[in-house]
Structure formats: structure tokens, C-alpha cells
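FORM 7B: Structural annotation worksheet

SECTION A. Query
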Amino acid sequence: MPQSRPCRDDGSAALEFITAGFLLLIPLVYLVLAMAAIQGGSLSVEGASRQAARVFVQAGDTGTAQARAKTAVDFALRDFGLGAAASTITISCRPNPTVCLTRRGFVTVTVTARVPLPLVPNVLALKTPLAVPMTATSTEQVSRFWGAG
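SECTION B. Predicted structure
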């Protein structure tokens, strides 16, 4: 009867631990970076829409209001590192859609922006979307003491 020999356990546990750690750590770090970018984009779009609605209802005329709203959105998006060129602004008014600054009327500002994923070069943006679209909507009421109505 052959005698069984005990198997030797001379592995390199440190190398295996480092390899397994990198294989798990790199996707986890990228996930944290991506979620931070998405959260920052979400906060910037929400802040941009809120501030644009506020400055819109405080303007004296519609032309000035639209210019101020665009400036507020551009500033808020640039503050978080997003390009203002990749954003759209939609302004709607109630109860009279043709006259936005009616007393006690409501102005709704919707801002949409694309938040790029981190560490992705522009060369890869051929057919797959490498950005997350974010949309935020804010509504403000025109003061009963303000506006042209």
C-alpha cells in the first residue's frame, strides 16, 4: 500500500492577495468616481434650474429674464465642471403661456445636461452614450407685487 505524502502548501499568498485585491479594487474605485460624478451632475442641474427660476421671476421684462436665467444655468453648470454647451433650458409659464411675468403666475424652468463618465476618452464616444442625461425642473411664482401684469 502506497504511503500518501502530505501536499505542500508553498504558495505565494501575498502575490495572490495583491492580485485579487487589484481585481476587486479597481472596479470599486471606478464605481465610486462614477457615482461622485453623477451626484455632482445631479446637484448642478438641480441648482441650475432652481436658480434660473428664481432670477427669471425677479426680472422686469421677459428678455432680461431669459438672459438672466441662461446666465444662472451657465454659471451653475460651470461651477460643477459641466460644459454649458451640452445643456438645454426650457421655460414655460402658467396661466398665460405668452406672458411669463404675470402677477401670481408660475414660471417653470427645466434644465437638461449630460454628465460625462469619468476617465472615458472622447475617442470612444462613437456609438455608445458615455454620458448620463440629467434633468431637473423648478417652479417659482411671480410675486403679486412684482411683474407686468
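SECTION C. Observations
Residues 93 and 107 are 5 Å apart (CA to CA). The chain has one domain: 13-141.

SECTION D. Sign-off
Analyst initials: ____
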